[in-house]
Amino acid sequence: MLYSIAMLSVHTSPLDSPGRTKDAGGMNVYMRELAKALSHHNITIDIFTRWTNENTPQIVQLTRNVRVIHIKAGPIAPVHKDDLYQYLPLFTRHIEDFRQDASLQYDLVHSHYWLSGIAGMRLADQWDIPHVTMFHTLGRLKQLANPNAPEPALRLEMEQRLVQHADCIIAATRDERMQMIRYCGATPHQIEIIPCGVDLKLFLPQDRQQARKQLGLESKEPLLLFAGRLDPFKGPDLLLRATALMQNDVQVVIVGGKLEGDKDLQQLQALACELGIGRRVHFLGARPQQELPLLYSAADVTVVPSYHESFGLVAVESLACGTPVVATRAGGLTRVVRHDETGFLVSRCPGFFAERLDTLLSDTTLYAKMSAAARPSILQFSWTSIADQVLTVYEDLVHKAQCLVAQ
Question: The CATH number of 3-197+382-406 is which of 3.30.470.10, 3.40.50.720, 3.40.50.2000, 3.40.50.10490?
Fold first, then answer.
């Protein structure tokens, strides 16, 4: 049967480069790659996102069966995600206008992040079709991970409402499912555990020295990599503090942000100088997805010092390239990184990170063992496998909805 899916991402587009802004990261990759993998089945997908650039066409054909459709809701310009809730009625209304003008019918709504979830809840109710949502990051769990950075009350309230109304919630790990039940009141039958995926054809190990040469990072010293948004929640500052405590002289590569006019990047540059490691820290800005395998392969270790990760896409990509990971013992990272086998999981403290990084870089036998185990440990995360699992959820929900209509 041919299914037509309306996928929603209000605050960030699957076309955006991960790491370039605070809103572009693993979720962007997830939506794009999942939609592409699903399109190999008998499915058409329209991904609706807010229009933020007047030079971007309203409709971008991603693959033969996948389109990204930009919807006018508020100014055609970037707006902080905390200010987007007011535009959700316009967003949903203009999606409905688009649907009517094109004479389209959708079988299911799949929303990403809480803002899209609220829009999806309204559209699913209006169209009388099932609604699947994935939070990617829950405000309540972020707040538990870092109590010093409270989340907006509106977000917490709306996430709670969404939990109560969604037909299905996709969680990336068993831990996330348990936390949704414990802290958000979700029911066990609501939640399907489906991990995020990785492009195993793109993320392949490459020769380290050749990778460094191509990147202009020809250094004989060990190289540590941070890749992602330069958001304090992701912890790039912790990596710098850990580097300053290490016994090994290492080079650090920070991939993310903008090279000009980025306050977060400038603060990290200032911190590196303050710690006396400014000359050893290289800021490359956000890099295209196709270049990331080169960066992971060039690095000796990828460091993921986040307060919390629902899944930990950077860790999976790094392991796919054969590069061990040292990460915070939190969230989905505990399911991705196998402690003492493919890397280390540590408490979120610069001293602990420094100690484990020194241990890994100083023990060649241990390093070789972890590097060899890295890629085999994540082969189950292929996008083909993930798409098959998501498709099963779609089919079950659409079938149940059709049975209810038939009654």
Answer: 3.40.50.2000
